[in-house]
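Good morning N.,

You mentioned wanting to compare the apo and holo forms, so I went ahead and generated the holo version with nicotinamide-adenine-dinucleotide. This is what I fed in:
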Amino acid sequence: MKLAISGSAGRMGKLVVKHAINKNLKLVQAFDVVHVGKDVGEVAGIGNVGVKIENDIEKLNADVLIDFTTPEACLKNAKVAALKGIKIVIGTTGFNEKERKELEEICRKVPSIISPNFSIGVNVFFKIVEFTASLLNNYDVEIFEIHHRHKKDSPSGTAIRIAEIIREVLARKGKDLEMIFYRKGKKGEDLGIFGLRGGDVVGEHTVLFFGEGERVELTHRATSRDCFAMGALIAAEWISKVDKPGIYSMIDVIGLNRWSNL
Ligand code: NAD
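and this is what came out, ligand included:
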């Protein structure tokens, strides 16, 4: 697999580069708008790897592109990749509804993976939340997440995905919960999502199920970004072997589909 990375000088991109080299993967191209012309390994702090950072995505020439950039950049990068028939792994989050639809349209044309969270633990966590929501379907549910102060989107893509999972489970039980970001005023038939920001927190997600006289709290804590980078590389290796165009998820990658419809 010939691998290209966009956003290669960012927090996530640098770690993807580091782990790709550790895994002896064939990193052939690195894109970013900063540190252009520098060796991507030097930028990632692992020494020269013989791949210079480029800023013209039209020159993309690889089997799989991993993208950790911004919604605007990611849409452009995915468009170029899809036109060239290059498989895509998207870690970028923060798309609005219109952008999300556009991204899905682009990604459907080639085998691709869109995941707001590449950690194996979080994807198992998704299943635990699905299971708990199906059993505690008459409990009140709220979600909060905490991230570092530099994160651009709020609430996180992962928190929104968790809310979607709960809504899908409850819809099967005939309950339609409205998704509320940062509720003001009284709680109704809704599911509140709250994003807290500060310091260097890598990422925490908590789902609370409130009953009478009790509550269940499920929490996932990421203590470093390595789990996201390693997960994105597992996803890239997996999608490189898929021929059928379409959008796949980490649930497919780690084979958790058999636990669906609990
Ligand atoms: P960051 O700001 O550190 O890095 C983004 C990089 O993209 C920067 O180096 C920036 O220069 C580069 N960039 C901007 N425009 C570009 C363009 N047109 N072409 C190429 N590169 C461009 O951000 P980060 O913390 O690395 O996060 C990146 C994205 O990944 C965010 O959306 C974040 O929420 C998401 N994220 C996802 C996961 C996951 O598991 N899916 C985990 C962590 C972060």
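The chain has two domains: 2-114+226-259, 120-222.

Happy to go through it together on a call whenever suits you.

Best,
F.
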